[in-house]
Amino acid sequence: MEGLVREIQDVQTHEVEWKGKLQARDGHDKFHIFYYGDLTEDDLITWQDSTPLIVYAEHTVTGERYLLIDSAKHGYDAMLCETYPAEELNNRPVRPYLDVEGEDIFEVQLTAFYNVPWDEEFGEDVDEDGTYELITGESMDFEQVKRDGYDAFAISIVNRKGVMTEIVQEELA
Fold first, then answer.
1. CB burial class (10 A; 0-12, 13-18, 19+) of residue 21?
2. 138-167 pLDDT, tens per residue?
3. Whole-structure pTM over 0.85, yes or no?
4. Contact (CB, 8 A) for 76 and 116
5. Residue 16: what are its φ and ψ, rounded to 5°?
6. What number of other Cβ atoms are within 10 A of residue 108's Cβ?
7. Helix/strand/coil (H/E/C) assignment for every residue in 12-35
8. d(C-alpha 134, C-alpha 126), whole Å
9. Whole-angstrom distance, CA of residue 155 vs CA of residue 95
10. Per residue in 75-103, pLDDT tens?
11. How far is it, in rounded angstroms, from Cα 87 to Cα 133?
């Protein structure tokens, strides 16, 4: 998502909270949403049974897709505590999201919460190349681990009429 999100500076946030608005490299900020998961009556996308949710934003002009969250890969638990069967993860067909008004084009706002003291708790496990080994055995740059290892994540969308809907509220630690 680096280079695709513009941090929102004009809002009051906690020290451990990061907010941003999705914006493509070409400046475009309108997207279709595609997801795998269940939809609650409050329009929240949740895990389908025990299979992690996944949410993409798709550029309305170019069709390029951007992964917003994959609960099997992003967040503290997915990176350090939990693994999931490959057959479940490889069988997560996405479908388009429509809000309660039938709208399918949205501005996308992201919020991540960071309450994990990464350097203090895990800094000694970082190798000389600056990488850290995840629970899956994959090695990742430690700075990327700290960015993707949030403990909560939310996605809000705003339709063309200005109606905001929170579609993801994930506790990930």
1. middle
2. 999 999 999 999 999 999 999 999 999 999
3. yes
4. yes
5. -100, 10
6. 22
7. CCCCCEEEEEECCCCCCCCEEEEE
8. 11
9. 17
10. 999 999 999 999 999 999 999 999 999 99
11. 23
